[in-house]
Amino acid sequence: KNEVEQSPQNLTAQEGEFITINCSYSVGISALHWLQQHPGGGIVSLFMLSSGKKKHGRLIATINIQEKHSSLHITASHPRDSAVYICAGVQETSGSRLTFGEGTQLTVNP
Amino acid sequence: GAGVSQSPRYKVAKRGQDVALRCDPISGHVSLFWYQQALGQGPEFLTYFQNEAQLDKSGLPSDRFFAERPEGSVSTLKIQRTQQEDSAVYLCASSLAYAPRRSPLHFGNGTRLTVT
Fold it and tell me: Which residues, listed in sequence order, are joined to residue B68 by a DSSP beta bridge?
């Protein structure tokens, strides 16, 4: 069982829809990164959080420490949001190693 | 530079050849990470540097893989006697802080290695 699991694997939405991507993680993960990967490989860091909620533009990330669960929300989705979204957990014991989820392929249709 | 730069962008190697992949992190970034991403999968950790010290190399898949960061800035990932299973995108990331829970990661665009 992977230490970081994402759902759904694939998500198709219509422009304007509210989108939620979920990430569950195991004991030993102390913080989470949400990343966006566009075709061609470039990865952009969206959020890093260990508690609470962060917002940047139309993106919102939340984390529930007790439930070991994090969500990434996109409001008023747009075709340019189409990408792979990855959550990655920081291992408490390692301090350096990130464990990546398998990613969610998001497609937003106009 | 403005971001993390990796070169070459694409590399095709014949099985058995040695390859060297370069990463230029953001100036002043303490931490540098190498990841391997196979097609359709999430990245897998390879190794981590804090300045010039390689603190974690537990993700390197075999002794054919070697990484260095001799002056605490530019890093090179070397793969000796390449095999087909080495075909992947190799990603480099850097961060300002000493641990990835302390500051955001900045990724390069990766080097796509194809071993024929």
Answer: B76
Of the candidates B75, B77, B28, B83, the residue with the CA atom closest to the CA atom of residue B53: B75
Q: In sequence order, what are the beta bridge partners of B49?
A: B32, B54
User: In chain B, which residue's Cα lies nearest the Cα of A91?
Assistant: B101
- Across A64-97, b (16+ Cβ under 10 Å) vs e yields eeeebebbbbbeebeeebbbbbbbbbbbeebbbb
Q: What is the pLDDT of residues A57-78, one digit of tens each?
A: 999 999 998 999 999 999 999 9
Report the candidate in B22, B114, B98, B26 with the shortest Cα–Cα distance to residue B56: B98
Residue A14 has pLDDT above 80, yes or no: yes
CB B105 to CB A35 under 8 A? yes
* pLDDT tens for each residue of B36-66: 999 888 889 999 999 999 999 999 999 999 9
Determine contact, residues B93/B33, Cβ cutoff 8 Å: yes
Q: Which residue has the tokens 């990546």?
A: A100
* Secondary element (H or E) of residue B95: strand B88-95
Nearest chain A residue (CA) to B92: A43
- Cβ distance of A33 and B41 shorter than 8 Å: no
Among candidates A69, A81, A71, which has minimal Cα distance to A107?
A: A81
- pLDDT the model gives residue B9: 94
* Residue B47 exposure: Cα atoms within 13 Å on the Cβ side: 22
Please give the span between the terminal C-alpha atoms of chain B, in angstroms, as a whole number: 33
To the nearest whole angstrom, how far is the Cα of A90 from the nearest Cα of chain B? 6
